[in-house]
Design a protein that fits this description.
The complex is a heterotrimer of chains A (525), B (393) and C (286). Chain A contains 21 helices and 20 strands. Chain A has 525 residues and is of the alpha/beta class. In chain A, helix 1 packs across helix 3, helix 4 packs across helix 5 and helix 14 crosses helix 18. Classes of the chains: A alpha/beta (525), B alpha/beta (393), C alpha/beta (286). The structure holds zinc ion.
């Protein structure tokens, strides 16, 4: 247990390397000399999470014990992260359930009658009742749902208030119930370093008006990377907004961090380093591989999306946001950080079946870009693993398939906007407003379970930094027409892709493979 | 003279229907279509002249007749056996190059005084298409006494002839007849400048409708529904703002019109939607979709020839749609003949790019099979080439 | 090969959504020793096979036929102790409908009391029904010591018990008097008793008809009842009977009126629940 992350050089004795490939996996033999970066093993979880939570609530950082902040007759609002975290969804009990139960226990003991629980889903889709139940647990759910436990609605003009403008001109809005509360508690789960802190409230309970201040191509190109808050223009903006919120409302933050134990026992091989595979792991791989090769997409999706991750709680802190977030980030980095020596010409990795925006849905091509060139590419500290002008090789089937319930605006974004241009800045200037204000998307966001009309733009901007930085992007195993539509190149095998990449980076390139998931943060020296 | 003749035969009809219009059966020995030496049509009366076809198109309505899909309604309006072919560019005995306006109204039939529609200049709506000097038939190409474009000689009344300008190639002139149909439909539809117009289908009729809408009544946005890549290129060239494929039809029309989309993936519908739709596929499915994406109070024009189709009438009722047929041509609102307008429009459209491949009469089986699969094979207007016959140089 | 397949099946079934909080799984060895001929019905591989038959065959069929509308299943979700599920009985379809209405985790651990003199008169029928629904023979009279003993053994080894204390199907759909066995059983094991009312199954398959017809069905699950200290088992039986009857009447009145705090306290898991009457010491757990 507890080995740190590692960089291993491929030699003759190295087993083939696992690549995630959408709703599937494949093994590839990487060229000799390739560096493979492995994440650290899962940290041991806290043995008694409830006890740790109670302790955190009783001894907050820079704040009074939560118990002393609760009194009868007050308005208490508890907001919590939506289902975009963690990935895959956690086995019950979710960390948020444990925290919420302790907080609510205190509120019940203090006799606080007026309690609301709000899913801080921002411009993400509304969570379904069952999804909320999964996150908060049965007891919280049956006590509060639906009149006092509900999704935040960023398009409800009555339900949001304008709090003011920051020194840099960013507008700030907040959910009205939260803004008018005597105490606003935020229950967070930090999976990667971009989550949490001031971003929780500023985006989670914000609206298009406040989020558009920093979800821009300009900001994201200046966030290098947004996975490392000190270097992230995005987070600087969020912090300014968050401070304005903290001035307006009495806030109390509870942040949690989990380890990286993200696959259930049955497919534990996805988590293990290939050198550690036992015969059982190999058999499991073979079975999974055969089945995913044969099964129809709908079956594969059902199977993959029913996976629940046995994450373990590694840290819980409560109190004032800055002190809390500092500790949380330290815990997250302890789990994720891997030192990598120097940059490389080519970086390869597989894009898994799941990203933050397709829980219980297929990963559409726009989200593949968001996941691959957005999230996974940006998991670095200091500088990217690939050198400027280098090549990123992704593995994903990249099919033209969209979930019509969750991603209606994504379909149109792909067919109307990307057909015209793939340049993020141009897209932002010409199309963003039209999608953001489309009445139909607004309706689907508010009443159905659709992402906001502007959301595909943000997914695309997420990749803006990578698109500007790298020389070429090659998708192995992708559907040719779709990949070209996205503005990238397509290859059918890794060997072909490497050959194509050589035209950009020259002969005998250095290659690094990032063995996601579990996620890790590359600290490039 | 050599001609392809269409005979009336119930067993042949039954056989073709049973094969679901398979080209090998529909043009086979037991079919309704036969190539042979037939008697040249005689001149039925004064004012009639002999025309030697040079190029003669294969029309969608011809194909439905051959494959047994045509409506039985048309049976009573046709006399058998006839030589098909009504999209004709030919020469007169003096060598003048003409296109034939095939509708057989009161005037060619020698009926005096003409019926009311004919008096108003709309021979397509003639009420006496079974009377007069020639037998029953809406058009040349469906009448036993006139011959048709798929034979070496046909007869036409001088009122049906329009001289082809010298600069217009034969391959373009053969498309003047369908273009006139589309011009007629477009002037009937009268798209307003702020409207969104959809042309459903991108065969000959669809593409020519796109061209006519763009030039005669340019709307805010003109969208063409095309299945095949070649059709897509033609549509864009002829003036469509956007071309969408049938499988993403509702999604993309929703976006283009800012409508709301309801229902599952199999039978969606738009609330709001398109202002004016030209249905140019002639299929029930096309019409069924059209009435689901056209906005309430909007108009649907059936330009392609439908048969006996199943269409859900609920949207037509609930949306108070105006569904209009559009057949043939005549005299338009400003008093000009549709054919004149079409001939005027034709040169700038480079219609010759839509014509081909050309087949000799002898290869009529291949020609019909090719025409049936035209879109998939990248063709638009398949035609017979008879220019090697006498009278052409 | 066949053995391998069964093993895989069992692995998949248990590994599905791995890690979902799962109480102690009753080991096959702990299953009832009382009637050795039926032990196989609660052991592998029959459990896996039954699971297959359930998921693939009769659960979808039952749901299709009856579209059960389930209210109050939240009372079952948090229970980690073995429970006695008590329902009215109007039709042979009841058991299927009730099992379909239970959450997966509860259904997997539920045995159904079947009238011994009806179902177990013929051995093949008894075996079939034991395999199909995981039943065990239960005497209609409700008093026989041997049966009570085997039932409490089942409860103690972690199985939920679904029984019909009316003893027989109601001829007209009205609730009949409950046999006293429920009270005895609750008294002996201290297991919570969950009142359930099922309505509409008499339209699906009334007494006397053999072919089921589709009809909508409603299942209401009530708050679990506990034997109060000092309460006689007969009066407890009456209380259960009343609870089932009340579930059948009109629309369900809120179990807990007043603020969320009361509801929160009422749904507290057993180990933490403050006893309202100031009574002391919860009943010994499994
Ligand atoms: Zn007339």
């Amino acid at each position: 247990m507890g080995r740190p992350g590692a960089v291993i050089e491929v030699d003759r004795n190295t087993p083939p390397t696992l690549f995630h490939f959408g709703e599937g996996v494949r093994l590839e033999r990487l060229p000799l000399g390739t560096r493979v970066v492995y994440p650290p093993d899962p940290l041991p979880p806290i043995a008694h999470p409830e006890r740790a939570i109670r302790r955190a609530l009783a001894h907050p950082l820079d704040d009074d014990p939560l118990k002393s902040l609760l009194r009868p007759g007050m308005r208490l609002t508890i907001a919590f992260d939506d289902l975009s975290l963690p990935l895959p969804p956690m086995v019950q009990p979710d960390v948020r359930q444990l925290v919420l139960e302790e907080v609510i226990e205190l509120a019940a003991a203090a006799g606080v009658e007026d309690v609301h629980l709000i899913v801080a889903n921002s411009l993400h889709r509304r969570m379904t009742a069952e999804e909320i139940r999964h996150v908060v647990g049965d007891r919280v759910f049956t006590t509060f749902y639906p009149d006092r436990l509900y999704n935040h609605d960023a398009e409800d003009t009555e339900g949001n208030v304008f709090l003011g403008t920051t020194a840099m001109g960013e507008e700030v809005t907040l959910n009205r119930r939260a803004a008018e509360s005597d105490l606003l508690i935020y229950v967070n789960l930090t999976l990667v370093p971009m989550d949490g802190g001031h971003k929780s409230l500023a985006t989670g309970l914000g609206s298009y008006r406040s989020i558009r201040a920093h979800h821009t191509v300009h900001t994201l190109r200046n966030s290098r990377s947004y996975m490392h808050p000190p270097d992230s223009a995005l987070h600087h903006a969020c912090t300014r907004q968050g401070q304005l919120i903290e001035d307006a409302v009495r806030c109390f933050h509870i942040e949690t961090a989990v380890n990286n134990h993200c696959f259930p026992a049955l497919v534990n091989f996805m988590q293990k380093r290939e050198t550690d595979w036992t015969a059982a792991d190999q058999a499991a791989y073979l079975t999974v591989k055969q089945l995913t090769d044969l099964a129809p997409p709908a079956v594969k999706r059902a199977v993959f999306h029913s996976m629940r991750a046995p994450y373990g709680l590694t840290a819980v802190h409560a109190g004032q946001v800055d002190a809390v977030h500092e500790r949380t980030l330290a815990a997250v980095e302890r789990q994720m950080l891997v030192e990598v020596e120097g940059q490389t010409d080519i970086v390869t990795f597989g894009v898994p079946y799941l990203g933050p925006y397709n829980v219980n849905a297929s990963m559409n091509p726009v989200l593949v870009v968001c996941m691959g060139l957005g999230y996974l590419f940006n998991l670095y500290r200091g500088r990217p693993v690939v050198r400027p002008g280098g090549v990123v090789i992704l593995f994903h089937p990249c099919r033209y398939e969209f979930d019509s319930v969750q991603h209606p605006s994504y379909i149109d974004f792909y067919d109307e906007v990307l057909a015209d241009t793939t340049d993020p800045a141009e897209i932002e200037a010409r199309y963003e407003r039209c999608f953001a204000e489309d009445a139909w998307y607004r309706q689907l966001y508010r009443r159905s379970h659709a992402y906001h009309g502007v959301h595909p733009f943000y997914a695309w901007y997420w990749a803006a930094h990578a698109m500007e930085y790298v020389g070429d992007v090659i998708v192995v195993g992708g559907e040719r027409e779709t990949v070209r539509h996205l503005g990238f190149k397509c290859a059918s095998t890794l060997a072909d892709a490497l050959e194509m990449a050589e035209q950009t980076v020259g002969r005998h390139p250095s290659i690094t493979h990032l063995r996601f998931p579990p996620l890790m943060l590359a600290d490039v020296r | 003279m050599l001609a392809v003749q269409f005979i009336r035969s119930l067993p042949a009809y039954a056989l073709v229907r049973a094969s679901r219009g398979h080209p090998a059966v529909a043009t086979g020995d037991l079919s309704m279509l036969h190539l042979g030496d037939v008697e040249e049509p005689r001149l039925p009366g004064p004012g009639w002249v002999r025309v030697r076809p040079g190029l003669s198109g294969i029309c969608g309505s011809d194909l439905s007749a051959i494959t047994g899909h045509a409506s039985r309604y048309l049976d009573a309006l046709t006399s058998y056996p006839f030589v098909p072919g009504h999209e004709v560019v030919g020469v007169l005995e003096d060598g003048t190059r003409v296109v034939v306006e095939p509708a057989l109204g009161c005037r060619p039939r020698g009926l005096e005084p003409p019926c009311r529609p004919c008096a108003e200049g709309m021979p397509g709506r003639c009420e006496r298409v079974t009377e007069g000097v020639v037998g029953a038939g809406l058009q040349i190409g469906y009448c036993a006494d006139t011959g048709g474009g798929w034979g070496e000689v046909l007869v036409a009344h001088e009122s049906q002839l329009h001289q082809v300008p010298a600069g217009l190639p034969d391959e373009a002139a053969v498309l003047v007849e369908p273009l006139a149909c589309c011009v007629h439909a477009v002037l009937q539809g009268r798209a307003a400048p702020e409207e969104v117009v959809v042309v459903q289908g991108a065969g000959t009729i669809g593409l020519l409708t796109v061209a006519a809408v763009r030039r005669l009544t340019p709307p805010r946005r003109l969208i063409c529904v095309a299945k095949h890549p070649v059709q897509r290129e033609h549509a864009l060239r002829l003036g469509a703002d956007q071309v969408v494929t049938p499988d993403r039809l509702f999604q993309r029309l929703r976006f283009a019109t800012g409508a709301r989309r309801l229902g599952g993936p199999d039978r969606p519908l738009l609330l709001g939607g398109v202002d004016l739709t030209f249905e140019c596929t002639g299929s029930g499915r096309g019409l069924d979709e059209a009435v689901r994406f056209t906005r309430a109070g909007g108009r649907v024009l059936c330009v392609g020839m439908p048969g006996r189709e199943e269409v859900d009438w609920a949207p037509i009722w609930q949306r108070e749609l105006t569904v209009t047929g559009s057949y043939a041509y005549g005299t338009e609102r400003d008093g000009r003949r549709t054919f004149e307008l079409a001939l005027e429009l034709a040169p700038e459209l480079e219609l010759e790019r839509l014509a081909g491949p050309l087949f000799p009469l002898g290869e009529y089986r291949r020609a019909v099979a090719y025409a049936r699969a035209a879109g998939r094979l990248g063709a638009v207007k398949v035609a017979f080439d008879l220019r090697d016959r006498q009278g052409w140089d | 090969m066949r053995f391998e397949l069964l093993r895989d099946l069992e692995l998949v079934r248990r590994g599905w959504r791995w890690g979902q909080v799962r109480p102690e799984w009753p080991e096959p060895a702990a299953a009832i020793p009382e009637l050795p001929s039926l032990e196989w019905a609660r052991a592998e591989p029959v459990r896996s096979l039954r699971w297959l038959v359930q998921q693939g065959l009769w659960l979808p069929f039952t749901r299709l036929m009856t579209r059960p509308e389930v209210e109050g299943d939240e009372w079952l979700r948090d229970q980690d102790r073995a429970m006695i599920l008590v329902s009215n009985h109007v039709s042979h379809a009841d058991t299927h409908v009730l099992l379909a209405a239970l959450p997966d985790r509860v259904r997997e651990r539920t045995v159904v009391g079947a009238a011994a003199d009806y179902w177990y008169r013929r051995p093949w029928l008894g075996r079939l029904v034991s395999f199909w629904l995981n039943t065990f023979p239960f005497a209609r009279s409700g008093g026989a010591q041997g049966v009570l003993h085997s039932s409490s053994r089942l409860l103690r080894s972690g199985w939920h018990l679904l029984i019909y204390p009316e003893g027989t199907r109601s001829p007209d759909g009205r609730l009949q008097e409950f046999k006293p066995g429920v009270g005895h059983l609750a008294g002996e094991t201290r297991a919570p008793v969950v009142p359930i009312h099922v309505q509409g199954t008499h339209r699906v398959m009334p007494k006397g008809r053999r072919i089921p017809l589709p009809a909508p069905v409603r299942v209401r699950i009530g708050r679990p009842l506990h034997l109060e200290p000092g309460e006689a088992s007969r009066s407890f039986t009456r209380r259960v009977e009343r609870a089932v009857g009340e579930l059948g009447g009109g629309s369900r009145a809120p179990e807990v009126v007043g603020s969320w705090i009361e509801r929160w306290r009422a749904t507290a898991p057993a180990r933490r629940r403050p006893r309202p009457g100031g009574g002391r010491g919860p009943a010994g757990g499994a």
